[in-house]
Amino acid sequence: PPSTRLQRHPNHPGGSLTHLTFVLAVRLSGHSVLDKRPRGGMRSATRGTLARMVAVPVFDGAALVAALDARRVELGLGWPALAEALTQQSSRLRAELSDHAVCSGALVRTVTRGSMSCQYAVMLLQWLGRAPEEFLTGGRREVGEVRLLSVSSDVRLRWDLPQLHGAVDAQRRQHDLTWVALATHFGCTPSRLTNLRSARLADMDLTMRLTQWLGLPAAEFVHPASW
């Protein structure tokens, strides 16, 4: 979109600023390069919109893995047995794709780390029969039906990140926000948002922050897939 293009810099040999230099220039100058105003900060409409935007909740990955571990212990499963159970959720698809099984070591590392990709989180949630919104902390927004679909073993649940990008971009435009302003609100770089347009993986916390900002359930963007 025109609002996200880097502006030409007359003294730069390549004719344009790098992304990092661009962001630093905006921050140091005290005004927005995007709307080409000499002073006054962001466009007043953007400032007003950001001021009205409430903090979005955070996805608690540690709580998810704690629930996973508790269920594992309840069923008397070791980590290898749990990995096999997770593998069986999409066993027919894995066989068709010659896909590798879920690694029990990776599961243990996930428990230790707490953070995970959105696709990995969906696999765990599917096995637990839980919704992503159940693991939000800090003022969860009610967004309607949040249950994930039940699917057979010839597919697996996957986030459609390009679809999520499209929804975020539409709301961003509606509120007259630049990607830089929106990224500032979410505490990330603009590229983490714009890269969703062609991504297959993203951090679960970021995707859940975005769905809460949109006021939509994660299930709206999670579909049966054969990849």
Layout of strands and helices, then pairs:
Blueprint: H1 19-29, H2 44-52, E1 58-59, H3 61-74, H4 79-88, H5 91-97, H6 104-113, H7 118-128, E2 136-137, E3 156-159, H8 161-174, H9 179-186, H10 190-194, H11 204-214, E4 222-225
Antiparallel strand pairs: 1-2, 3-4
* Average pLDDT over all residues: 82
What percent of the residues sit in helical stretches (DSSP H or I)?
A: 40-55%
* Low-confidence regions: 1-41
What proportion of the residues form beta strands (DSSP E)?
5-15%
General shape: globular
Q: Major sheet, described briefly?
A: 2 strands, antiparallel
Distance between the termini: 30 Å
The computed structural class is mainly alpha
Record the strand order, biggest sheet. 1-2
Order of helices and strands: HHEHHHHHEEHHHHE
Keywords:
227 residues, mainly alpha, two-stranded antiparallel ribbon, two-stranded antiparallel sheet, 4 strands, 5% strand, globular
Task: Give a description of the structure.
The protein has 227 residues and is mostly helical. 48% of the residues lie in helices and 5% in strands. The chain has 11 helices and 4 strands; from the N terminus they run H-H-E-H-H-H-H-H-E-E-H-H-H-H-E. It has helices spanning 19-29, 44-52, 61-74, 79-88, 91-97, 104-113, 118-128, 161-174, 179-186, 190-194, 204-214; strands at 58-59, 136-137, 156-159, 222-225. Strands 1-2 form a two-stranded antiparallel ribbon. Strands 3-4 form a two-stranded antiparallel sheet. Helix 3 packs across helix 6 and helix 4 packs across helix 6 (104-113). The chain is globular and about 50 Å long. The two termini are 30 Å apart. Residues 1-41 have low confidence and may be disordered.
